[in-house]
């Protein structure tokens, strides 16, 4: 997909969104809608400008490197897993697993190195956030 | 309304069921309560007046209860997020929280469609501080008492600007209460916090500031601002020269009360233990001295009396809301 | 005078020095971690100070405050992961410098600029606090409105390469700034019933998502992500900026320190306005404005001296009027009152010794973080040699834990990640993220003050031009907007001749 097509899509999508914002704003009671309406109008102007700009395409405006979809998916899945595990299993089960996965599959470190780094880093987080700052991180299975 | 009452009934049933269930299981456990640190949920940010009170209370309570009391700030949505966490916490006595009246009892009807906790899901324990509302003007203001002020508003309603900390908050409710008693219409401006509003008052950008006594007392004691009235039934120790609204013929009583509560369904033994701890802390002269220094008037109300106190306020404000909602839907 | 010497002696006791050192180190660490703001750092220290004598307690809080503002610059420069909104402008030029292997130099400049701004504002606090505190009162809603616009002008400069995309991003930021429970009418705007959004889109999760999380994705996703500094090129040795560069930046340092101190005094403004305005002014006065945003030391100097000058500024109304200058000093007030000191003029009479002790300790804390910072520079830059795919997951962990710690809300963490994905694609598709964040920060300040002005003046738009102070500020805004255009036209004509 070229940037021109993306820009057109963005202009269309956000143009509609901004129109909705203006419509909602105008329906608000009192002066609550003034600011949303102004912001939405600015947005619509920007969208029109963007759409017009795509008509004279600029070939130098292409993405620098192709997107590595597989690696992006891996990291997204890892983050998803981190968040889900954090609230269910607990922060200090989720963190080392996430770090290990990231270091092993994305950085391609040897598994022993990955393991050591992830455990060490988790210990550091535990010291800073739990011991020093007393942040009540979700503890999940570790408590009950 | 029908849906609402059905929901309340269901919540009440659920609460009862858990009370019985937990009560049976907890009977033995409660004897040695507490065996681990207790989490204290503060529904406002660190450093604010509620947070300061909670931390000082926790310091004294730790000595009484023999366990750490960990203050956890869960601010958001004017306290609502913290109370959602409190109401949803495991009712084992290891999570308690602060509730702020009148906001805690008004959200369930002013935010009926979206509110995340039910009034019945929180069991009040003990009120600690009742911080009365005050109407404050700058020291160089021409208005000496409420009558001056009311006369000026009647004369030129547009020139008098009163600040509050957000529509539907306790300051706004107090000011509305006063406007009703004096039969006037006030022009309001909302400020995000006491610091900005105080600066605007002292700088002459607004006419009056409606806030709580603890927020305004320092400026009043310094002689930079003057309170026209305190919305309580008697004069306050921190500013004995300030007359009450009632003395001046305006039947207005408004205050922000801060106290402790537990999730509904906490075993009775645990509740009683926490009640004893609260009594001991509130009776501690050192605690009293610290509260006096912060200009926070201690107003102990315990157990069922506290429940009745909140219920009365809940009923009164709900009736007011149904008659004339202060937030138009 | 008779309190100054004992106050100085209080600061120089071994115990006091140790407290300051620990406070400074804690502050630097807190500041450099995403999500851990100065406010949180100070708030977390308050319980520790319960059992300390008031002198030491205030020293600890003060040291944590000033050094945490500085600490934010380290990660902003080296990793483009500003921990708080105060360091966004620092990252704009600091990170390109780090990418070019000049991270050490940028850190050195940030440290010296922070020291300069910090010392400047503490001296101002020490010498002319009471008269200056009236500035806090002179600013009404009208002035705040214009000031917010002044800050928003920065967007024009930041997005000058892609004005339309910048405008789109800013508009999105302004719309997001409207989300939440409206304090003026009590209605909900764009919250879709989520009580987590009643206070608006939380700023730090948005900021950390758009900058830190998207940067972590940038580092992880490309296979060749290898090393942050373009394939392991040698770090350019210097850890201190050249004397020549420092001299060049002197005017910027002074200007930014003045802006920072004044903005700090204003309770409704906030640190980031100071660094944005200073950054924009530095760019406007520069002879090479086109180098800003691509690695200009002067940009780092402007932002860092301004945000550290704010620290002293915020304490001016706090100590003299009892009106905290920002969220951090509001927490500070909590700390003061716990120790029986009610902020206000009595601090300079009844508690003069303790107050001057605090001020001297701030001076010392500024020097301490600068010494520590300069010494650590050379070790910290090594971070830029670590493979990106190793750094990425670690940045993600800090971002996730940090945003959770803000208000213990898992919703905020999801929001952070969502903003991270958005930020990643914005960067790929050449939409600048900074305008969005600047609009999100300044939008609410602009809106509430605009509406307050309208309520006070009963919808009279001339109110912004009939008050001397807001008129002056308005003229400054016009100048800031018109100058680049005029400059371009002049150059264009010179080129023609």
Summarize the structure.
Chain C: InterPro entries: DUF112_TM. The complex is a heterotrimer of chains A (144), B (329) and C (497). Chain B has 329 residues and is of the alpha/beta class.
List keywords for this structure.
heterotrimer, A: 144 residues, mainly alpha, 2 domains, C: 497 residues, two-stranded antiparallel sheet, 2 strands, 1% strand, globular, Bug_dom1 (chain B), Recombinase RecA (chain B), BUG (chain B)
Low-pLDDT runs of 5+ residues of chain B are: 1-10, 19-28
Question: Uncertain segments of chain C of ≥5 residues (pLDDT<50)?
Answer: 226-233
At the first level of CATH, what is the class of the largest domain in chain B? Alpha Beta
Per DSSP, what share of the residues of chain C sits in E-state strands of 2 or more residues? under 5%
Q: Which sheet architecture does the biggest sheet of chain C show? A: 2 strands, antiparallel
Summed up, the helix count of chain B is 11
Q: How would you describe what is shown here?
A:
- The complex is a heterotrimer of chains A (144), B (329) and C (497).
- Chain A contains five helices and no strands.
- Chain A is mainly alpha-helical and 144 residues long.
- In chain A, helix 1 runs antiparallel to helix 2 and helix 3 runs antiparallel to helix 4.
- Chain B folds into two domains: 2-130 and 255-323, D-Maltodextrin-Binding Protein, domain 2, CATH 3.40.190.150; 132-230, Periplasmic binding protein-like II (D-Maltodextrin-Binding Protein, domain 2).
- Chain B is built from eleven helices and ten strands.
- In chain B, strand 5 (161-164), helix 6 and strand 6 form a beta-alpha-beta unit.
- In chain B, helix 2 crosses helix 9 and helix 4 crosses helix 11 (303-323).
- The longest helix of chain B is centred in the first third of the chain and has 30 residues, at 2-31.
- Mean pLDDT of chain C is 87; it is low at 226-233.
- The longest helix of chain C has 30 residues, at 103-132.
- Chain C is an all-alpha fold and 497 residues long.
- Chains B and C meet through helix 2, strand 2, helix 3, strand 6 and helix 7 of B and helix 3, helix 7, helix 14 and helix 19 of C.
- Chain B: InterPro entries: BUG, Bug_dom1.
- Chain B: Keywords: Signal.
- Chain B: This is Recombinase RecA.
- Chain B: Residues 1-30 form the signal peptide.
């Amino acid at each position: 997909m070229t940037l021109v097509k993306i820009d057109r899509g963005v202009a269309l999508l956000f143009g509609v969104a901004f129109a909705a914002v203006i419509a909602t704003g105008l329906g608000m009671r009192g002066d609550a809608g003034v600011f949303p309406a102004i912001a939405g109008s600015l947005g619509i102007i920007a969208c029109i400008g963007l759409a017009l700009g795509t008509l004279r395409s600029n070939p130098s405006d292409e993405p620098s490197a192709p997107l590595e979809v597989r690696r992006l998916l891996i990291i997204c899945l890892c983050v998803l897993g981190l968040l889900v595990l954090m609230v269910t299993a607990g922060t200090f089960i989720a963190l080392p697993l996430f770090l290990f996965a990231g270091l092993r599959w994305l950085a391609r470190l040897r598994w022993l190195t990955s393991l050591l780094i992830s455990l060490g880093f988790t210990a550091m987080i535990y010291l800073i956030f739990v011991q020093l700052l007393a942040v009540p991180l979700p503890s999940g299975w570790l408590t009950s | 309304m029908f849906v609402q009452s059905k929901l309340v009934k269901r919540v009440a049933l659920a609460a009862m069921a858990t009370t019985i269930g937990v009560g049976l299981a907890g009977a033995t456990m409660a004897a040695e309560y507490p065996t681990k640190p207790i989490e204290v949920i503060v529904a406002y940010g660190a450093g604010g007046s509620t947070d300061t009170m909670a931390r000082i209370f926790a310091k004294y309570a730790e000595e009484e209860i023999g366990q750490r009391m960990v203050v956890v700030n869960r601010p958001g949505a004017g306290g609502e997020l913290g109370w959602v966490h409190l109401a949803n916490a495991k009712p084992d006595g290891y999570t308690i929280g602060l509730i702020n009246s009148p906001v805690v009892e008004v959200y369930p009807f002013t935010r009926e469609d979206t509110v995340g906790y039910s009034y019945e899901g929180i069991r009040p324990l003990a009120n600690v501080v009742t911080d009365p509302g005050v109407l404050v003007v700058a020291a160089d203001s021409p208005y000496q008492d409420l009558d001056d002020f009311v006369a000026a508003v009647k004369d030129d309603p547009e020139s008098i600007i009163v600040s509050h900390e957000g529509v539907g908050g306790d300051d706004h409710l107090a000011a509305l209460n006063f406007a009703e008693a004096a039969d006037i219409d006030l022009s309001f401006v909302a400020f995000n916090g006491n610091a900005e509003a105080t600066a605007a008052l002292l700088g002459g950008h607004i006419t009056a500031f409606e806030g709580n006594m603890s927020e305004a007392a320092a400026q009043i004691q310094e002689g930079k601002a003057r309170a026209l009235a305190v919305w309580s039934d008697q004069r306050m120790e921190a500013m004995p020269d300030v007359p009450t609204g009632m003395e001046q013929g305006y039947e207005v009583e408004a205050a922000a009360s801060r106290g402790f509560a537990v999730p509904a369904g906490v075993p009775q033994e645990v509740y009683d233990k926490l009640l004893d701890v609260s009594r001991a802390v509130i009776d501690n002269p050192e605690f009293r001295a610290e509260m006096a220094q912060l200009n926070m008037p201690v107003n102990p109300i315990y157990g069922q009396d506290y429940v009745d106190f909140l219920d009365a306020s809940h009923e009164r404000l709900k009736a007011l809301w149904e008659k004339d909602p202060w937030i138009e839907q | 005078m008779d309190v100054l010497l004992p106050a100085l002696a209080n600061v120089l006791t071994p115990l006091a020095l140790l407290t300051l050192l620990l406070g400074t180190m804690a502050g630097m660490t807190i500041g450099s971690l995403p999500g851990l703001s100065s406010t949180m750092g100070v708030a977390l220290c308050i319980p520790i100070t319960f059992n300390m004598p008031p002198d030491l307690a205030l020293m600890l809080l003060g040291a944590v405050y000033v050094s945490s503002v500085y600490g934010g610059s380290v990660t902003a420069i080296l990793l483009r992961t500003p921990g708080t909104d105060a360091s966004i402008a620092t990252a704009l030029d600091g990170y390109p410098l780090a990418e070019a292997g000049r991270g050490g130099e940028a850190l050195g400049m940030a440290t010296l600029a922070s020291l300069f701004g910090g010392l400047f504002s503490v001296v101002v606090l020490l010498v002319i606090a009471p008269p200056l505190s009236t500035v806090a009162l002179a600013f009404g809603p009208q002035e705040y409105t214009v000031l917010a616009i002044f800050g928003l002008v920065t967007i024009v400069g930041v997005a000058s390469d892609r004005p339309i995309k910048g405008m789109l991003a800013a508009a999105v930021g302004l719309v997001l700034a409207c989300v939440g429970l409206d304090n003026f009418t009590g209605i909900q705007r764009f919250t879709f019933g989520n009580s987590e959004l009643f206070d608006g889109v939380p700023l730090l999760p948005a900021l950390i998502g758009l900058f830190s999380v998207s940067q972590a994705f940038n580092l992880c996703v490309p296979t060749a992500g290898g090393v942050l500094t373009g394939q392991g090129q040698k770090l350019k040795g210097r850890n201190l900026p050249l004397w020549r560069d420092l001299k060049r930046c002197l005017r910027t340092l002074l200007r930014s320190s003045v802006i920072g101190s004044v903005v700090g005094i204003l309770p409704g403004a906030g640190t980031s306005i100071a660094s944005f305005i200073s950054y924009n002014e530095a760019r406007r006065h520069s002879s090479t404005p086109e180098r800003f945003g691509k690695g200009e030391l002067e940009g780092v100097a402007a932002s860092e001296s301004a945000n550290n000058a704010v620290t002293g500024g915020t304490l001016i109304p706090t100590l003299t009027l009892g009106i905290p200058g920002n969220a951090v000093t509001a927490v500070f007030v909590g700390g003061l009152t716990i120790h029986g000191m009610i902020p206000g003029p009595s601090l300079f009479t009844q508690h003069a010794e303790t107050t001057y002790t605090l001020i001297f300790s701030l001076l010392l804390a500024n020097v301490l973080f600068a010494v520590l910072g300069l010494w650590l520079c050379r070790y910290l830059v090594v971070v830029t040699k670590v493979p990106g795919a190793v750094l990425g997951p670690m940045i993600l962990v800090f971002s996730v834990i940090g945003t959770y710690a803000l208000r213990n809300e898992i919703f905020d963490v999801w929001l952070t990640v969502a903003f991270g994905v958005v930020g990643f694609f914005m960067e790929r598709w050449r939409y600048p993220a900074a305008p969005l964040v600047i609009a999100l920060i300044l939008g609410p300040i602009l809106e509430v003050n605009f509406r307050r002005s309208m309520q006070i003046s009963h919808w009279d738009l001339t109110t912004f031009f009939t008050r001397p102070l807001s008129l002056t500020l308005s003229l400054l805004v016009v100048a800031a907007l018109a100058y680049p255009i005029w400059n371009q036209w002049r150059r264009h004509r010179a080129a023609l001749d």
